[in-house]
Structures are given as C-alpha cells and as structure tokens.
C-alpha cells in the first residue's frame, strides 16, 4: 500500500488521526474537507445531507490528489469520510492498493464530540444521516478498523504498524 485513507463519520477524528499518521510515517496529510465545493459546504452547513451526485467530483479530485502524491514519491494520508463502499471503490480505482483506516465510533460519542466542535461546517442535524449512509468496510481489502475512542498516539501507532506490515 502506498497511500491511506482515514475514514469514518463526522467528528470521529479523521483529520487529527490522518495528521498523526502522516507525521509518524513521514507522509503527507491531504485534508479531504478542503476540497468540497462551496455549494456542498453550504448544503452541509444548512443541515442538508450530500447525495452521490454531490460527491462524484469531490471523490474524483481526491483520487487525483492521491495519484499525484504517489507519483511524486510521497506517502499520502487522506482524511475523507468515504462512508459508502461505492465511494471507497471510486478511490480504489485511482489507487488500486489503497488502504483504509476506519475510525469506528458510536452515535452517542459522535453527538458529544460534535457539540464540542467550534467553527466546523457540518451541521449537528446531519449526524443521523452520516450513520444512515455508513456502510462499514467489512470484507473489503486492506482495511484496519480501530476504536476511535483510543488515544491519538495509540491509533496512529497501530495504523502505521499495520501500513508498514502491508508493504
């Protein structure tokens, strides 16, 4: 595996964990949220869930960023919700040997964490839609599932050890 996606529902810690993995592995973090269109951000801010059409261009762009980073000799770590298998497959088409770190977290903890976040565009109204969209990456290749309540250092250590063992 030459690239990773840190995935899961809102407020599970994707960005924090992806940054920690990139730092530990000598990689580069790509923040998926930075590439949402203005229209998508406004939808989410307004409490309207994104649909597949909203995500197509975003996922295509993220795939291209992964390909470019790998071609440049970098080890990219993308933070991206990748909630459905279809979205993960789209990213795998860009990077066939792509690995996924699934940050598993229950809805009550997501509610608690989301209430503490300041300045994020994701509306609290969308938490239930995130869980409705989530297709857990069971029986998919190259997936590490980690309890997202573990300390950041422990999650990043496990992820980097797993990533290194896959090469």
Written description of the protein model:
This protein has a five-stranded parallel beta sheet with strand order 2-3-1-4-5, sandwiched between helices. It has helices spanning 14-25, 38-45, 52-71, 85-94, 107-116, 127-133, 152-166, and strands at residues 4-7, 28-31, 76-79, 99-104, 143-147. It has a single domain, classed as Rossmann fold (3-Layer(aba) Sandwich). The longest helix has 20 residues, at 52-71. Helices cover 49% and strands 14% of the residues. The mean pLDDT is 88. The chain is α/β, with parallel strands linked by helices and 167 residues long. It has seven helices and five strands. It is globular.
Topology:
Blueprint: E1 4-7, H1 14-25, E2 28-31, H2 38-45, H3 52-71, E3 76-79, H4 85-94, E4 99-104, H5 107-116, H6 127-133, E5 143-147, H7 152-166
Parallel strand pairs: 1-3, 1-4, 2-3, 4-5
Brief descriptors of the model:
alpha/beta, globular, 14% strand, 49% helix, 5-stranded parallel beta sheet, 167 residues
- Estimated structural class: alpha/beta
The coarse silhouette is: globular
What is the rounded Rg? Answer: 15 Å
Widest sheet, order of strands: 2-3-1-4-5
Oligomeric description of these chains: single chain
- How far apart the termini lie comes to 6 Å
Question: What's the mean pLDDT score?
Answer: 88
**Overall helicity:** 40-55%
* CATH architecture verdict: 3-Layer(aba) Sandwich
CATH C-level class is Alpha Beta
Uncertain residue segments: none
Topology-level CATH name:
Rossmann fold
**Helix count, DSSP H or I runs of 4 or more residues:** 7
> What profile does the largest beta sheet have?
5 strands, parallel
**CATH superfamily label:** P-loop containing nucleotide triphosphate hydrolases
Q: How much of the residues is beta strand, in percent?
A: 5-15%
SSE topology string: EHEHHEHEHHEH
Strand count: 5
């Amino acid at each position: 595996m030459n690239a990773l996606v840190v995935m899961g529902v809102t407020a599970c810690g994707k960005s924090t964990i992806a940054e920690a993995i990139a730092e530990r592995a000598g990689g580069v973090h790509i923040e998926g949220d930075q590439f949402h269109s203005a229209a998508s951000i406004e939808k989410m801010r307004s409490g309207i869930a994104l649909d597949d059409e909203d995500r197509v261009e975003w996922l295509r762009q993220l795939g291209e960023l992964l390909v470019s980073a790998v071609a440049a000799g970098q080890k990219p770590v993308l933070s991206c919700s990748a909630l459905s298998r279809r979205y993960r497959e789209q990213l795998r088409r860009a990077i066939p040997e792509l690995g996924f770190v699934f940050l598993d977290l229950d809805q009550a903890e997501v509610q608690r964490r989301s209430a503490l976040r300041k300045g994020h565009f994701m509306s609290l109204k969308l938490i239930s839609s995130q869980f409705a969209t989530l297709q857990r990456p069971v029986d998919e290749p190259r997936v590490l599932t980690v309890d997202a309540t573990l300390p950041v250092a422990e999650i990043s250590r496990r992820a980097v050890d797993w990533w290194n063992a896959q090469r």
